[in-house]
Amino acid sequence: MKRKKQIVRNIILIALTALLFLWQGGYHLTPEAVFRSAEKAEWLGPAAEVIEVGQRDDGCLCLAGMEEKGFYMVSAKPILGIFWKYTNEHWDGYFPVKVKTRAWVSEDIIVGQTRETDAVEVVCVLEGWNIEKNDWQDVGRYTIPVGENGFFSMTLGSDTAETIDCVVKEVICKNAAGEVIGKDSQ
């Protein structure tokens, strides 16, 4: 009987040690749990809505927290098959939206928010610095659908030119009929 008690006790101790390791190591079971933990660590939120933005090339999942005056992004990386961990490799910080429409390029993802209530899609015009010409040049125009909350995002494909030095030059909001209802230059 003593041997059975030792086995049960050791199994319980191993389980508690594993749980303590996961808790202290910042491992979570869902990406949203990672997001909520990062909110507390960065003194943000709590966000009323969490949106999955897209996946980066290294497997990190980007999540955005929506607030009344802007949004912020957090990255969660899959670890050990079933766990997720907060990573600040792609920490973009807080994006304030002080005008009607605002957009940014975050590495390989275009993100933004509009306050145009009738907007169903936006066209983001990207520009990048051309070293040979020593001037800005247009990189591309991307049409992105707008969610009900005004948030929009698009993951740029690998066929897109290097976006690390790109900025959003202009955001054009369109309604369901395709008419331009707002235009913000940045």
Largest sheet: 6 strands, antiparallel
User: How many individual helices?
Assistant: 2
Strand content: over 45%
The dominant shape is elongated
Give the helix proportion (percent range). Answer: 10-25%
Distance between the termini: 75 Å
Offer a quick outline of the entry:
This protein has helices at residues 2-24, 31-41; strands spanning 27-28, 49-55, 61-67, 70-79, 83-87, 93-96, 101-106, 109-114, 121-130, 135-145, 151-155, 166-174, 180-185.
Q: Can you describe what's shown?
A:
By secondary structure, the chain is α+β, with helices and mostly antiparallel strands. It has two helices and 13 strands, in the order αβαββββββββββββ. It has helices at 2-24, 31-41, and strands at residues 27-28, 49-55, 61-67, 70-79, 83-87, 93-96, 101-106, 109-114, 121-130, 135-145, 151-155, 166-174, 180-185. Strands 1, 2, 3, 4, 5 and 6 form a six-stranded antiparallel β-sheet that branches. A four-stranded antiparallel β-sheet has the order 10-9-12-13, with no helix packed on it. The protein is elongated, with a radius of gyration of 22 Å.
Provide keyphrases for this structure.
single chain; 186 residues; alpha+beta; six-stranded antiparallel β-sheet; four-stranded antiparallel β-sheet; 13 strands; 18% helix; 47% strand; elongated
